[in-house]
Design brief:
323 residues, alpha/beta, Rossmann fold, Alpha-Beta Plaits, 2 domains, seven-stranded mixed β-sheet, 29% helix, binds adenosine-5'-triphosphate
Length: 323
């Protein structure tokens, strides 16, 4: 079955992976990725991200469940999928004596209708390193070479396992721009990352894995919204906590006081902040060191990593947002 523009190009249903010895690294996960979407798989160390991506790449057969990439089983129908996908493994292995250009040419020989090697090396910023031997590249430059090789076949679907690990801040931003541009040109990207700001700024949707399961799936904004926002300020001189309007009426879910510093947590940031500021205006006081902020993806991640094993009130451990 071929996919159309609006269909999911990656579909994962109740997927399981069991290693020799019986360890279940992937324990029944579901997600899907639409054409032209960047989907990030996040999770703690050992959560099962690489084990999952390898199943999507057709490198191993699932112990249970179903994977479809571009409408095909990537393991049993490898020939139908492989030439339409690009893969950047977590650790690429290159012959260290070859130069960058030789490595790209060797790889291009394995790809049908390969892009010109100079083109992909320029895309990843390695055009000035073509005559350098692979063993002389820095770790970050090797990651870029990995990415260049994944792009050689002009893939419809790109699997990137920790694409920016080892890159400096500039290299990471360059890679983000390149991946965004590929997405804008219609490439579907599934990536794993430990950099939460990478997922926050790049991903259209993401899933957070923990212990072989997906704890939450949604847009970065949806996942971040699972955490309360925070308001911090110093109580004005001569005022006490009891002088503020009743915090429950401001939508504040809990608070702490440390000396004169008050920290409020709220799921209704606008209502809480407005109520507080109107009170301060009417009282004619200044809320010094006022700081109002939404939760970050990092806070949501840490909470999920901590709580993911605990069942929710409805008995499930997975939260999924429709988009
Ligand atoms: N070949 C293997 N044999 C047995 N267990 C394995 C094998 N490969 C991975 N595992 C185990 O499966 C679990 C998931 O590993 P995986 O590499 O998929 O996690 P990950 O989320 O990619 O982790 P990281 O962020 O550290 O790269 C881990 O507990 C790991 O020890």
């Amino acid at each position: 079955m071929e996919t159309t523009e609006r269909e999911h190009v990656i579909e994962v249903t109740d997927l399981r992976r069991v290693y020799g010895g019986g360890f279940e690294a992937v324990r029944g996960i579901d997600f899907s990725v639409r054409r032209g979407e960047i989907f990030a798989l996040l999770g703690t160390n050992g959560a099962g991200k690489t084990s999952t991506v390898e199943l999507l790449e057709g490198l191993a057969a699932p112990a249970g469940g179903r994977v479809r990439v571009l409408g095909h089983d990537p393991y049993t129908e490898r020939g139908a999928v492989r030439h339409r996908t690009g893969v950047m493994l977590q650790e690429g292995g290159f012959p260290s004596e070859l130069t960058v250009a030789e490595t790209a040419r060797m790889w291009a020989g394995c790809v049908s209708d390969a892009r010109p090697t100079r083109e992909v090396l320029t895309m990843v910023g390695l055009e000035s390193k073509t005559d350098v031997r692979v063993k002389q590249l820095s770790g970050g430059q090797r990651r870029r070479l990995d990415l260049a090789l994944a792009l050689l076949g002009d893939p419809e679907v790109l699997f990137l396992d920790e694409p920016t690990t080892g890159l400096d801040a500039e290299g990471r931003h360059d890679t983000w721009e390149l991946v965004s541009a590929l997405r804008d040109a219609g490439t579907t990207v599934l990536l794993t990352t430990h950099y939460l700001e990478e997922a926050e700024s790049l991903a259209d949707r993401l899933a957070i894995m923990h212990d072989g399961r997906i704890a939450v799936t949604g847009t970065p904004a949806q996942v971040t919204a699972t955490e309360p926002s925070r308001i911090t300020f110093d109580l004005p001189d001569g005022y006490f906590l009891g002088d503020l309007p009743p915090l429950g009426e401001l939508g504040v879910s809990d608070h702490t006081v440390d000396g004169r510093t008050v920290r409020l947590r709220t799921r209704e940031l606008q209502r809480s902040a407005t109520g507080l500021l109107l009170w301060a205006r009417d009282a004619g006081v200044e809320l010094r060191r006022l700081d109002v902020r939404s939760a970050s993806l990092e806070e949501a991640f840490l909470t999920i990593a901590r709580d993911a094993s605990a069942p929710r009130a409805d008995g499930t451990t997975t939260q999924e947002y429709a988009v």
